[in-house]
């Protein structure tokens, strides 16, 4: 191992069901040049199939199964306890965690980097080194479908969470993204997916793989993980920050941008992948905005932001992944807030002017009143439930 830190490095593998995580674990175990890897495999079900597959191919591995729950929520404490146990009782050079196909990477990273009140301190026993997401190139677009929800039995943290949300979070919060199953997808389609994922997470290193074959040094003991950087790396956050810098606080604008420079040609030039920020101080009429929000045939892959609705003190958060859209109250406006709508859109070949016009049609005068405060707040509450990461919430309101 190359690091100067004597605590074993930890690599977390995320990615939806069937993307190729177990294939990657087996590949790493077979190609880790004599270094001792310990593996923790999380499975939502009672029977840990992936652990069996790994054990069969690599019988002497230090392998721990965490089954019947998710390490991003209910099994957080067990995860840390098992990892500390492994580092104390085996001569381990590095640890690899295979998250379940529905785990969210951000809470796992938080669990591994923060001392706990109810158990051993993870930061004293090991160091989080790398967040890897394995993406199934073949299933990529299908997983963005609104209709696809989590598999049966996935009742935590939220059974209604769409699969697209899990996919987007795992793309946005990673250091390395393996675009796997490239043998099943033509090159021009792969180029398009690469453009999209690099717009969703401009900071990630993206590698195209077949059967998750990568050089282990890309994902083990890299010294790369930094929680603050990872937290800020989502494309929508970067776009919002750049927009705020450009505007210098002047809010009444919708801007278009090909926001990130890619190595050769910009993503917008090749596959029409681009992003834009919509900001307005005038509030939306709640009912009209709700109707517009759920029109989905517009080429948008990701959208996120805050909305200012007339007649309510609630700040409305909006989060969209593919065709799955969630919106709902995330607290009240503070006196010092600039009360305005700020929405980032990322997509392919969408018409930003058309989206802007559609949203503008929902605006009402700042002074305008709606029927009754109570009715509006009830309406707002009855919008789709919004799950929003506390860090995202803070970032949106910075
Ligand atoms: N054609 C093709 N198949 C692959 C590739 N990588 C993995 N597979 C196959 O895809 C299936 C799922 O792979 P796994 O490694 O089990 O995926 P996983 O992410 O661990 O899946 P879960 O444990 O269900 O979350 C297996 O049958 C693999 O052999 C690839 O690059 N190309």
TrEMBL record:
Has the keyword Hydrolase been applied to this entry?
Answer: yes
Q: What segments bear the compositional bias annotation Basic and acidic residues?
A: 236-249
Q: Enumerate the UniProt keywords alphabetically.
A: Chaperone, Hydrolase, Nucleotide-binding
* Alphabetized PANTHER family for the sequence: COBW DOMAIN-CONTAINING PROTEIN DDB_G0274527 (PTHR43603), ZINC-REGULATED GTPASE METALLOPROTEIN ACTIVATOR 1 (PTHR43603:SF1)
User: What is a GO molecular function of this protein?
Assistant: hydrolase activity
Classification via SMART domains: CobW_C
Protein family (similarity comment)? Belongs to the SIMIBI class G3E GTPase family. ZNG1 subfamily.
Q: Kindly state which reaction or reactions the protein catalyses.
A: GTP + H2O = GDP + phosphate + H(+)
What is this protein's record name? Answer: GTPase, G3E family
Has keyword Lipid biosynthesis? no
Domain CobW C-terminal: from-to ranges: 273-363
Instruction: Enumerate the InterPro entries for this protein.
Output: CobW-likC_sf, CobW-like_C, CobW/HypB/UreG_nucleotide-bd, P-loop_NTPase, Zn_Chap_cDPG_Synth
- A Pfam family cross-referenced in the UniProt record is CobW_C
Give me the ranges of the annotated region Disordered.
236-269
Q: Which domain of life is it from?
A: Archaea
């Amino acid at each position: 191992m190359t690091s100067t830190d004597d605590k074993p490095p930890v690599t977390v593998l995320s990615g939806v069901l069937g993307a190729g995580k177990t294939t990657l674990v087996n590949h790493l175990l077979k190609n880790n040049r004599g270094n001792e890897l310990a593996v923790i495999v999380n499975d939502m079900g009672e029977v840990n199939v992936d652990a069996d597959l790994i054990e069969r191919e690599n019988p002497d591995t230090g392998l721990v199964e965490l089954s019947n729950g998710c390490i991003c929520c209910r099994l957080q404490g067990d995860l840390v306890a098992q990892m500390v146990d492994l580092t104390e009782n085996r001569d381990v050079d590095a640890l690899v965690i295979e998250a379940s196909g529905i785990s969210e990477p951000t809470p796992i990273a938080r669990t591994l980097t923060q001392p706990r009140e109810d158990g051993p301190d993870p930061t004293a026993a090991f160091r989080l080194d790398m967040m890897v997401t394995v993406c199934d190139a073949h299933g990529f677009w299908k997983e963005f479908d609104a209709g696809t929800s989590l598999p049966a039995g996935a009742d935590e943290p939220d059974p209604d969470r769409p699969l697209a949300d899990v996919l987007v979070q795992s793309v946005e919060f990673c250091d390395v993204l393996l675009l796997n199953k490239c043998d099943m997808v033509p090159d021009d389609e792969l180029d398009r997916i690469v453009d999209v994922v690099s717009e969703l997470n401009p900071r990630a290193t993206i590698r195209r793989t077949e059967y998750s074959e990568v050089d282990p040094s890309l994902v083990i003991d890299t010294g790369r993980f930094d929680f603050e950087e990872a937290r800020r790396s989502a494309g929508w956050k970067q776009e919002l920050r750049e927009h705020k810098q450009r505007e210098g606080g002047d809010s009444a604008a919708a801007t278009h941008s090909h926001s990130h420079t890619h190595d050769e040609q910009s993503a917008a030039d090749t596959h029409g992948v681009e992003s834009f920020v919509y900001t307005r101080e005038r509030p939306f009429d709640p009912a009209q905005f709700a109707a517009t929000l759920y029109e989905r045939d517009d080429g948008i892959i990701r959208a996120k932001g805050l909305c200012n609705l007339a007649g309510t003190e609630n700040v409305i958060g909006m989060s969209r992944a593919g065709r799955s859209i969630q919106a709902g109250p995330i607290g009240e406006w503070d006196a010092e807030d600039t009360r305005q709508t700020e929405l980032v859109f990322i997509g392919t070949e969408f018409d930003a002017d058309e989206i802007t016009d559609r949203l503008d049609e929902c605006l009402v005068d700042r002074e305008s009143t709606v029927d009754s405060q109570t009715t509006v707040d009830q309406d707002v509450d009855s919008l789709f439930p919004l799950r929003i990461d506390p860090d995202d919430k803070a970032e949106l309101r910075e």
